[in-house]
Design a protein that fits this description.
This protein has 7 helices and 6 strands. By secondary structure, it is α+β, with helices and mostly antiparallel strands. The protein has a 6-stranded antiparallel beta sheet. The protein is 30% helix and 26% strand. It has a domain of 138 residues: Chorismate lyase-like (Chorismate lyase, 3-Layer(aba) Sandwich).
């Protein structure tokens, strides 16, 4: 699954009710805490939810995985900037003032049905490609840890070659790609990338980023 709720699903009804009450109580306390700044509250709330369902963080958890990254208060200046719909790479280029390239550390094949958000049944695809790595500037500064899962059969013509050459995913799918709005979440962003399909558009990839600047 895109996020791991296995631990929650295994709880009986009474235990689940107690867990949710505890989550609400602790979350409310963090929201009204008088001695914490907003970035610190966001980071603590992120860690709180991680206890219940590990988020994708720098990567998408695969079957049996339990992976989460910790946000830092150093992202406060980035969080203060509005995050708008569009490609993450374009936004990162605007923030750094440099061209952005991708450097992959891991590429593997994964079961497509592990990522139901991609709706692999629409085109009968059984295998997806999972990539993890970094976005870096032209001068070599790491900007973000990135992870993506995409269905090869939905990539536009020429996109696979661009990915091989280090072009970030969103730009490899351009120009006819739509990225979901990028919500700010303690230095994390994530969303689906949509491309034209036989009947309008369909999701081609999931992408997640963890800011390092």
């Amino acid at each position: 699954m895109f996020e791991s709720y296995a631990g929650i699903r295994q709880q009986d009804r009474d235990t689940l009710a107690d867990s949710m009450c505890d989550l609400i109580r602790r979350g409310r306390w963090l929201l009204i805490h008088p001695d914490m700044r907003l970035p610190e509250k966001l980071a603590e709330i992120d860690r709180l939810f991680t206890e219940y369902a590990p988020p994708p963080g720098a990567g998408f958890p695969g079957p049996g995985e339990d992976r989460a990254g910790a946000a830092t208060a150093g992202h406060s200046d980035i969080l203060a900037r509005p995050v708008r719909p569009g490609l993450f790479t374009d936004w990162a280029a605007a923030v750094t003032g440099e061209e952005i390239t991708a450097w992959m550390t891991s590429i593997s094949e994964v079961p497509a049905d592990s990522y139901p958000e991609l709706q692999p049944q629409l085109s009968g695809e059984h295998t997806a490609t999972r990539r993890e790595g970094l976005l870096i500037t032209r001068s070599g500064q790491p900007v973000a840890e990135v992870s993506s899962v995409y269905l090869p059969g939905r990539l536009p013509a020429g996109a696979a070659g661009k990915l091989h050459d280090g072009v970030p995913l969103g730009r490899a799918l351009a120009p006819r790609v739509r990225r979901q709005p990028l919500p700010g979440d303690a230095g994390r962003t994530r969303g689906l990338l949509w491309v034209p399909g036989p009947a309008g558009e369909w999701p081609a990839a999931l992408a997640a980023e963890l800011l390092l600047i």
